[in-house]
Structures are given as C-alpha cells and as structure tokens.
Design a protein that fits this description.
This protein is α/β, with parallel strands linked by helices. 18% of the residues lie in helices and 26% in strands. A hairpin with a 5-residue loop joins β26 and β27. α2 runs antiparallel to α3.
C-alpha cells in the first residue's frame, strides 16, 4: 500500500493499513497512524505525529519548519489527531521554541484546499477551514468553529467554540464562543451562530440563554467589567454562559466587541 516511488525515511513509523501515494516524501521522526491515507506528491517532515484514519490529499505540506525569523532550528513538533481531512496544498508548520514548541490539530477537522496553519497554533475538534482560510502563529481555535473562505486570524488571537467566521473576515481580536463575525461588519460581531447551534442539537432554551449573554456583552453598551458581572448572574443557570465567562478569563488580547 506504499507506492514504490514514495521515499520513506528509515526512522519513520508507519501504522497498519496506511496508504502512501506516488512520489510522496515522509521524513525522519514522522509517525503515521493506522488507516491513514496519504496521497501522491505529499511532503511530511518531522518531528510530526499523525493519528489514525486521516486523509491527506496530494501536494499537502505537513510539518515544515515555522515561518518565523526567531526560529533557530530547535526541536519543535506537530501533532495531528484522528479522522482529519487535509485537502490539496494545505500547509501546516511545526511550532517554535519560544511558542511552546508544538502545533496541535485535534480530531475530525476539515482543512480544505490552500488552508494554512502557522506555527504554535492549537486547533480543537470538528473545525472546518474553508478554502484559503489561514491562521497566523499562536492562534487558538475552539471546537466546532467554522472559518469561511478567505478568512484569516491574526497571531495570538483566540476563537471560542461554535463560532462562525464569515467569508473574507479578518479577525484581529479574540472572538468569544458562539459568536458570528462578518466581513461586511468590518470584522465585528454580528449575532450568534444560531443556525450552527441548532444543527448541533442546541435546544431553544440553550440558544435563548446564549442570545441574552450576547446582548449583555455586545449590545447593552456596558463596560466589559459590568457586562461580566451580569454574565456571572446568567451563568448560574447556563453552562454555555459559563463557557463564555471562562473564555473571557483566558482572553489575553482585546475582545471583538
């Protein structure tokens, strides 16, 4: 199941039932889990750990060194979980020594054509990166987030769970969970991701609580400290509002408001 033209470094660890296509290069210190399919003309550099049942399409570049002038060749890694789809011309870089030394991709994500994941990024599970979307270094993306085509996230920004980044939207601040960002709103919030939440089984009560929290945080005109006090009261009856509060506590950049 490994094409004879593929070049596999002797130190690479290849799991059971792995398929590797023609002219693909698998470098030193690479591990590929059981059932993963790697297409032709793919380059995978190490140290990189790839889990099980992933699908990597032709011309992807996985585990390359970070595009960071401070990188001086120190050992850094890339970890990719299970059941991810990585399409054509996707690029994913390893971490940097100063940034934690690790880029990590979770499980069940879709990275469509020409997506770029920079060094030291942390991506959760069930994230969709549409064509040409990109993360700068040190970005964090929560579970179930969708990044539309041509969208981008600035370095060190965090995007919370179940958020939706609209087409062409450039994110320069932290985006709380459940929030929609729109390019036509000049990178500002435009409501909550109601349709996405419904598709994932959120009932009317949960969505209503999230809407109240959104109005408190973004529409009431309150200083952030006062809005947070009101969210603490609302969080007593809503795990989702507690998720928003936890995100605010973790936020290190300005909040998209």
């Amino acid at each position: 199941m490994i094409h004879p033209t593929a070049q596999i470094d002797p130190s690479a660890r290849i799991g059971a039932n792995v398929t590797i296509g023609a002219y693909t290069i698998v470098g030193a210190d690479v591990s590929i889990g059981d059932g993963t399919v790697v297409g032709p003309h793919v380059v995978i550099e190490g140290p990189t750990r790839i889990g099980q049942d992933n699908r990597i399409s032709q011309f992807a570049s996985i585990g390359g060194p970070p595009q960071d002038k401070k990188f001086s060749g120190e050992r850094t890694e890339l970890e990719i979980g299970d059941r991810n789809l990585i399409r054509e011309f996707v690029t994913i870089n390893r971490g940097t020594g100063e940034g934690g030394s690790l880029t990590r991709i979770g499980n069940d994500n879709w990275l469509l054509a020409y997506v770029h994941i920079a060094h030291d990024c942390i991506v959760g599970d069930h994230v969709v990166f549409s064509n040409y979307s990109a993360l700068a270094g040190h970005a964090e993306i929560g579970d179930w987030t969708i990044l539309s085509g041509y969208s981008g996230v600035h370095q060190f920004c965090k995007v919370g769970v179940h958020a939706f980044i609209g087409m062409g939207c450039l994110v320069g601040s932290d985006v709380p969970p459940f929030v929609m960002m729109a390019n036509e709103a000049r990178g500002r919030p435009r409501g909550i991701n109601s349709e996405g939440l419904k598709r994932r089984g959120f009932d009317a009560a949960r969505i209503g609580a999230i809407k109240r929290a959104y109005r408190t945080l973004f529409m009431a005109g309150l200083p952030l400290a006062e809005a947070r006090e009101q969210l603490e009261v609302q969080a007593q009856d809503s795990e989702d509002v507690r998720e928003m509060l936890a995100f605010l506590d973790r936020s290190e950049r300005s909040l998209a408001r």
